[in-house]
Structure formats: structure tokens, C-alpha cells
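task queued by scheduler; priority normal; single chain, no ligands, no partner chains; default sampling; output format set to C-alpha cells
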Amino acid sequence: MKKVAIVTGCAGGIGYATVQKLIENDYFVVGMDVAEYDGVKDRFVDFKKSFRYVRGDLSIAEHREILCKTALEETGRIDALVNVAGVAPSVRADLLEMSEESYDRVMGINTKGTLFLTQTVANVMKENEAVDGIRGYIVNISSMSAYTSSVNRGEYCISKAGVSMITTLFADRLAEYGIMVNEIRPGIIATGMTDTVKEKYDNLIEGGLLPIKRWGMPEDIASAVYALCSGALPYVTGQSVDVDGGFHIQRL
């Protein structure tokens, strides 16, 4: 019987790479994204019977419930949750000009949606039969922005700092059930979210911003996700893993 994983933000970038990685390693994946399925279905054709798509908005409670219900239809359990879905501000505005509307939108998806989907799935996972003491894995995709100031997208930084605390809280609360909760902090990753700032980061990387002198790829993050969901690290919870080319290293 295949393990079942939920992956949000599955239609592109890190989410899509994560779906692909999990399916390659014998997971059945239920993915959710806001995109119309007809517009993205060609991306999933090779996944055949190992994937199911749910169109939904992470910030809406009803959509989160449908997602979980769909996953449970497969085997009656959810083995892994990967919270990838996230948005950047529609307009990069100085912190002194940031609007409440932008704050509410970013926080509603990145933080509130992640929090309450995790809550819902955790209540399912704790009823799972333990396998080698483990009932489930939860991996949150945060960002180096959780600890790095970007004053022209403050709402994004705040939202990702919130994801870090969500990780800590659920790791603490769910350890007694054998549910491992960890976080990955991507660095500069080549996705649709970074397309608009490609030249800026090309120049920074060339100038030595990163010890590993290249862009990160979605597959770099997906590999780290699988490592945390594979059973290879059964004594690790509440951990933040920096997948950032060494950006976090303080250097002189």
C-alpha cells in the first residue's frame, strides 16, 4: 500500500518538483493549487494513477477540508503533508507604505492557511497506526526571508517567520504522537516568484552573495523534502534546514 502525501502549491516550482520526487519514491500524492486543472493537466500526465489534483485556495477553510477528504479517500490515512503554497506581495512596497490589503492576502495564504491545514492534517495523522514509531511527517516550506530583512516586502518576511513558529509549535505538540514536523528554508530559487528579480539576483550571485555560486533549483528543495519524509531521520523534529547555497553563513 502506497503512502499518501498532500502537497500544496503543486502546479509549479517547488510544489511540482516535490510532487514528482514523492511519486518517484512510491507516494500517492494529492496536490492542491489555485490553477484551473485544464490549464496545468499536461504537467501531470506522466504521474498516471499516483496523483490527484484538487483546485483550491489554501486560505479558505472549505477548500482545506475538501483537500484532506480527498486524500483520505485513497487509504484512509495521510502519511505526509508538505506545505509549499505561498504568495509574494502583488506589489513590492516600502514598509512605510505597505497596505493592510496586501498584508492580509499574504498572511492569509502563507501563514493562516498553512497553520490551519496543518491543524486539520495533524488531527488525522495522530489516529494513524504507527510504523516504526512514526505516524506522519509534516514539512513546511518557509524561506530565508524568515530571518532576513527585506523592507520592500515586509509582509512576506513576517509571514515566513510565522511559518517557522508554526513548525516549532507543531513539532512540540505532535512529538508524543510520533509525528515529525520540520521546516525547509529555501534561498534564491529559480521559480515563477523570482522571475521578476532575476537580473538582480544574477548580479548578486555573481558578486559572491552565495558560497555555492548558483541559483537554487526546485529539485534542490524537493530532495530535502523527501529526506525529511523518507524515514531516514526518525529522531529529527522542529528542525529548520537551510537549502540556500550557504546564504545563512555569516562571513567577513
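post-processing summary
- The radius of gyration is 18 Å.
- The chain has a mean pLDDT of 96.
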